[in-house]
Known about the structure:
The complex is a heterodimer.
Chain A: H1 7-34, H2 40-57, H3 78-110, H4 116-131, H5 135-159, H6 178-192, H7 211-236, H8 239-244, H9 248-254, H10 265-296, H11 304-317, H12 322-363
Helix pairs in contact in A: 1-5, 1-6, 1-7, 1-10, 2-6, 2-7, 2-12, 3-4, 3-10, 3-11, 3-12, 4-10, 4-11, 5-7, 5-10, 6-12
Chain B: H1 3-21, H2 27-48, H3 55-71
Helix pairs in contact in B: 1-2
Amino acid sequence: MKQIISNLQIMFLAVNFVISSAVISLPQITVHIGGQNSWLVPLINLPILTVIVYLLLGKPRYLESLKALFAIKKRSNLWEKGFIFFFMLFILFTFVRDVRAMIDFIGSVLLPSTPNSMIMVLTILAIVYISMAGLEVVARVNAIHSVILGIVIIILPLLLLNEIDVTNFQPLPSLSTGASVMKSVFFTFAWLGEMLFFLIAVGSINPMKEARRAVILGAVLSTFYFFIIIVLEIAVLGQKIIEEATFPSYILIQQINITDFLDRLDLVIAAVWMPTLITKTAFLLYALNHCLSFYYKSNTNKFLFPLSFILGYLSILLFKNSMEHIHFSLYTWSSLGLLLEGIIIVLFIVCRRRTRKNHEFRGKPIL
Amino acid sequence: MDIGIIVVWLSLIIYVVVMLKAKIAEKKERKWMYLLVIAALACTILQGYHVHLNGITILLNNTFGRLSRMVVNI
């Protein structure tokens, strides 16, 4: 039976794809390059993301033709196979990077005496448990956690009101700082472009007509959350501390100090952040299984269990140490992710056009 | 032996037993199941002996990573 997700769920999925992993260490490189004016970066990224969504989904009246796109057990052309191949690469790199980021974060901040392999095994068990239930369950779990994360991010300025130092934004942006901000946009775009993961689930959205608006709303919300986090980090921590920190967002929430007894809210907020990342990786595992099923021409999740362990171990084996992972995440992924996203966008547009032509041809009466 | 490796081995043994006993995996699917289980076991052994597969990461860091570093001077 085909799984269906609503527009609200696809919106929350788009939010989660962007914010859950970007929040861990992306502000560090953003502020390192863009300086105190990095709060402009999400604002510049938003119109680019919006244009990409418009390009990808096209006019609402043609959206119905996308329902058959990337469906399993159907004859597929070379373009679709090519799209699935590059999409699979995109998923693999992101999954391995995110699981390793999660392991490093938990291992260094939350459970310092637990071995990395045990953290990985427990994380993978949680991921595979959600993922095996299918797209609908992943979308529902994601919606719950995204809402909670959204509430936490929105109330964050109130919680940190007594720590904000407005002078950290000085000197204000000028034309001479434009180049560094644009460089920062280049470094963050591959991460924000991870919103493209929704493409694999595009055939499962119902009703289809509102899909474009939902994805754009997701992009707006996620960039807004990222904007809040960047602004708060600059205002509370200042440029120098963010540049030196591996997990600046965690240091930010450690600064919450409302009263004498409410000073360990960081653990509560970390406990809200982690499930969103687990849900994102669960979706990635589902998407990878969908891609493999597309080639295998049979919709099955029988092999998901050993596959998830292979990917989990790859997240440890592919990076010798945390530094190699950070280098990959902050530098390599900026170019590699951008390249993969570019290829995926072009191939999706070609696939969409071909599917639309077939759809129109089938709709014509035979005379 | 690492506790993580023991948990993975036990989980994979249970997975294979359930798949075979409940006849979830059809005959033509079994080769894929065995292949993936062996690959997962191989990964645990590599991790146990601290053998890293970071050659691909080094290659990517030296190509795409260098490309990104050309944009900024850090």
